[in-house]
Amino acid sequence: MLSLKYKPWYIKLFNVEYWPSWFFYIPVWIQHTWLAIKTKNLFFFLSTNPAIDGFILSDSKFKTLQLVPEAYRPKMLFVNTTVSDSELFESMKSANINFPIILKPDIGFRGLKVSKIDNIDMLKAALTDLRVDYIIQEYIEAPLEVGIFYYRYPNEIKGHIPSVTVKAFLKITGDGNHSLAELVYQNPRALLQKDILCKKFSKIWNSVIPKGVVLTLEEIGNHNRGTKFINGNDLVDDALLEVFDNLSHSMKEFYFGRFDIKVASIEALKKEGDYKILEVNGVGGEPTHIYDSNTSVFKAWKDLCFTWRVAAKIAAINFEKGIEKPTYRKARAKWDLYASYKTKLYS
C-alpha cells in the first residue's frame, strides 16, 4: 500500500506548484481593476504586443513564431483541418521535415494535445483526435530546454529578463529490481502522470527496467505533463540579455513574453544563432519560474502581479504612440473566437 505522501491528492495539496492555475491569478485579477483605471482601458493587454493578434491565450503559435528570424525557428508547417493526409505528407516532404516531429494545436493551452510523433502511423492516429488547425514542427535534438521571459519598454533600447526556467524532463532510472510501473509509483511527479504513462508504455509497463537505464517518460516540456520547472534566474547576465535585446529589435512590435527554447547549453544560448525557439508566448505567457517547487505562493503572486504591471505600462506607452485602444466589441469578438476554438480542442 502506498504511503500517504505518494497519494496523488496529497502530492497536489502539499506542493504549491500543483495548485490550480486560477489560484495564482487571484491577486492579478484584483490588480487588473487598478491597471485598467491607470491605462483607461479594460482590455489594455491586447495592445501590449500589437504584432500579436488574439485574446490572452488565443494567439496563433504559428503566426507569432513568424515574428522570429528564420535562423532561430525550427522547420514547421501550419496545417488546416481540411488538408488530407496525402497532402500533409507531401507538404512535409517538400519542407524537408522528417520524423520525429512535434504535433501541436495552433492555439493551445498548457501542452494539451501536444505530441512527439515518431512515424506516419502515430501521426495518423494523433490526427484523428485533433479537430483544430495545427502545426507540424521538426523535433529539435538538444539537451536543454529553457523558458526565457523578456520584456522591453517600446521607448527604450534595452530590456529585462525577470524569469528564466530550466526544464527537467520526467525521467526514471532503472534499478534492476523494479518494474516501470513500480518505479512510477515511487516517483511523486511521475505518479501524477500514471494513467498517461501506463497507456504510453503499455508494452513495458510491468517489465523490470535494467539497472542504470535512464528512461525519458515525457519529452514535452510542459509542467502539467510532468516536466520539473527549475528557477534559473541566477543565469541572467549581460550576455544573455544582449541576445534577447537583439532578438526583440528584430521582432516588429513585440515587447513582452516568454520564449521556449531548445539549446545545447546556456553558454551556447549566449552565442547568437546557436539555438531554436519552439514557441513565443505573448501576454498570456507566464514567468514559469513561479512553478519551481521551492517558490512560495506569495512569491509567485508577487512576480505575476509585477509582470502584469509591466504589460500595462507597455500598453500605456503604445497608446501614447497612437496604437488603438481595444474596445469591448473587439475584445468580445476575440474571446468568442477563442471559446469556439477551445470547444473544438477539448472535443
UniProtKB/TrEMBL annotation:
Q: Is Translocase there in the keyword field?
A: no
Q: Which domain of life is it from?
A: Bacteria
**One of the record's GO molecular function terms:** ligase activity
Stretches that traverse the bilayer? 20-37
Q: Which UniProt keywords apply?
A: Ligase, Membrane, Transmembrane, Transmembrane helix
What protein name applies here?
D-alanine-D-alanine ligase
